[in-house]
Design a protein that fits this description.
Blueprint lengths: L3 E4 L2 E4 L25 H16 L3 H35 L7 H21 L5 H19 L5 H15 L2 H12 L6 H5 L3 H16 L35 H23 L6 H6 L3 H14 L8 H9 L22 H10 L8 H38 L4 H12 L1 H34 L9 H5 L1 H24 L5 H25 L6 H27 L8 H19 L1 H7 L12
Helix pairs in contact: 2-5, 2-6, 2-8, 2-9, 2-14, 3-5, 3-20, 4-5, 4-6, 4-9, 6-20, 8-9, 8-15, 8-16, 14-15, 14-19, 14-20, 14-21, 14-22, 15-19, 16-18, 16-19, 18-19, 18-21, 18-22
GO cellular component, one term: membrane
Pfam family, one: MFS_1
Organism: Meristemomyces frigidus
């Protein structure tokens, strides 16, 4: 067995080939704990075994579904602000040059939420963060429908974003820690809920906005003016005649409240046993495992005595998990020491050249990705309505086409998930065929010379899936900027959202797998934070390209510049992902 040394609380191979240490899978030998000097690490192996023994039981499916609803809310709301931009602009009277402020407010909330909730999930635990994000989003989401000024709308939007911002880092962390190793493809499949959320939002908008908008509406060449911009008594776009966007906000707020009720009342989520172990609460971790087994109608295979036996072992009495306060020892540390401990978790992201490279490239990928799809989500619905209006297509037709545009995204997520599954099958076939060839030839060549290449097949497949999908996503945006026909408007938007969904499905499932449990929430949260931060900068940059008036020609020119900006930044993902290391994943995640 390779020698393993303790560095920053995690094992590191002397070869330095892996950003984080390879962790044995379920088929490993009984001596799989050999070399693990951290009793918390050994306890995580016991927890992994117990989770794997549960399989995809009822509890695991409940968790997966509830985490999926969190993913659904993420793009449900992001899509909503793009769909209401036109009627909101018409009623409240702000110019196109200020239209990006909605996305800025939402992204600001998302940024704060991604950072704060991403860190809190590793400090206060998964349970409270899991529930509070939905409650905050629901409360302020319902309030959005009652806003009567642009300023009020922006403030409330920021609070909605704060609640929504924690969903991705929290839900990926929770799902990764509760589903068995051989069902990890379900983590990437969580992203299927995002296009479902977009389709649901688009369907609701289709029912409300075309039927309850001012006449003439915002997609025409001469829309009714805002009542804020004309003298009293002049025919204008009133609140009463423009209730469609408000009905949409009320409905989405009610859906979000329903998700909170499911999480907090209908199904009582138990705290993550791995989090409890790292915090020194072994008894509570065992109680959680017993509760999971009870829901799954089986006997729990782990007891407190098993954990106590590990704690008592001579080579396990000293914990190397420094960033988590040495497990049970953390219970006796001072507040200042705990703060120092929590801050030290960030050091693990840069503890050597490999991890530093990985961390920086992940951050850059999230930055380019969020920049591109923030602009797409904010402006593509508005641009499509304006382009369709220019070729005499009705507002009702435009909102109907949103359903056709976003529905294929569901298929894209499934395909993005299947890429890895099929490549894993290919890896096993390659390994099996290699062994057969060597046995038949009587060759004495050691098979250990080949597995490194074969094991990297799934990782390489996901990497190039992201490269190709981000390239096609950017290309579709560029082409859309240059043409304007009914077929091209639908087809190119379908292409853009299809490959955006595929890219994010792979990215969101891949990111938490390369970081260990002690900092998994932090790592995902910080990556999301950088993405959200540049999601703020993107619309500020874009709105500076738009005119201060609603002149049709000036708008067309401005929107063309916005599309070129979005397409160019999206292509940055091609470069950053190409530079990611080809490393094998899919081992046990501590």
């Amino acid at each position: 067995m390779e020698k393993v040394t303790r560095i920053g609380g995690m094992g590191k191979h002397d070869t330095d080939d892996e950003p984080f240490p390879p962790q044995p899978d379920d088929t490993s030998s009984p001596n799989e704990m050999e070399g693990l000097t951290l009793y918390e690490g050994k306890k995580c192996l016991l927890i992994n075994r117990e989770i794997d023994n549960n399989g995809m039981g009822r509890y695991q499916w409940y968790i997966w579904g509830l985490c999926g609803f969190g993913y659904m809310l993420d793009l449900l709301w992001a899509q909503a602000f793009g769909l209401v931009l036109g009627p909101l602009e018409q009623e409240l009277g702000f110019p196109p040059s200020q239209s990006g402020n909605i996305s800025v407010a939402f992204s600001s909330g998302l940024t704060a939420g991604a950072f704060i909730w991403g860190v809190l999930v590793d400090i206060v635990g998964r349970q409270w963060a899991f529930n509070l994000t939905c409650l905050i989003s629901a409360t302020f989401g319902l309030a959005l429908g009652g806003c009567n000024s642009y300023t009020a709308f922006l403030i409330v939007t920021a609070f909605v974003g704060f609640g929504i911002g924690g969903n991705i880092p929290i839900d990926t962390t929770i799902c990764l820690e509760f589903i068995p190793q051989n069902r990890r493809f379900l983590l990437a499949l969580l992203s299927i809920f995002q296009p479902i959320g977009v389709v649901i939002c688009s369907a609701i908008a289709y029912g409300f906005i075309p039927n309850y908008s001012c006449n003439p509406n915002f997609s025409t060449a001469d829309p009714a003016p805002s009542c804020f911009n004309v003298p009293a008594g002049t025919a204008c776009c009133t609140k009463k005649s423009n209730m469609g966007w408000r009905y949409l906000m009320f409905t989405l707020g009610a859906i979000t409240l329903g998700v909170f009720i499911l999480r907090f009342v209908v199904f009582r989520f138990k705290e993550s046993p791995k989090f409890l172990v790292y915090r020194g609460h072994d008894d509570k971790a065992v109680a959680t495992l017993e509760a999971i087994a009870k829901v799954n109608k089986r006997q729990c295979g782990v007891s407190l005595a098993d954990f106590e036996a590990l704690t008592g072992e001579h080579n396990s009495t000293t914990s190397g998990t420094e960033l988590l306060g040495s497990g049970a020892k953390q219970l006796h540390t001072s507040f200042k020491e705990k703060i120092s401990i929590e801050l030290s978790r960030y050091k693990l992201l840069f503890n050597n050249a490999q991890t530093s490279r990985l961390t920086v490239l992940v951050w850059l990928t999230y930055i380019c990705d969020f920049w591109g799809f923030t602009l797409a989500g904010t402006y593509l619905p508005r641009i499509l309505a304006q382009k369709n209006g220019a070729i005499s297509l009705s507002l009702k037709f435009t909102y109907k086409t949103y359903l056709a545009i976003y529905t294929p995204g569901i298929i894209a997520v499934v395909l993005g998930t299947m890429v890895r599954t099929l490549l894993i099958i290919l890896r096993h076939v390659m390994q099996g065929q290699l062994n057969i060839i060597l046995r038949r030839s009587g060759c004495a060549l050691k098979t250990s010379l080949f597995p490194a290449r074969i094991q990297s097949v799934p990782q390489v497949g996901r990497k190039w899936t992201m490269v190709i999908s981000s390239g096609l996503m950017g290309l579709s945006i560029f082409i859309f900027a240059t043409v304007n026909t009914e077929a091209s408007n639908i087809g190119l938007n379908v292409m853009e959202y299809f490959f955006q969904s595929m890219f994010n499905a792979v990215l969101y499932g891949w990111t938490p797998e390369v970081f260990p449990a002690p900092i998994r929430g932090t790592a995902c949260g910080v990556a999301s934070f950088w993405g959200r931060l540049f999601g703020i900068i993107a619309p500020l940059t874009a709105q500076s390209l738009l005119p201060a008036s609603n002149n049709s020609a000036a708008l067309t020119a401005g929107y063309t510049k916005v599309l070129c900006l979005a397409g160019g930044i999206t292509l940055g993902c091609v470069l950053t992902v190409s530079l990611l290391p080809n490393k094998a994943l899919g081992r046990q995640s501590m």
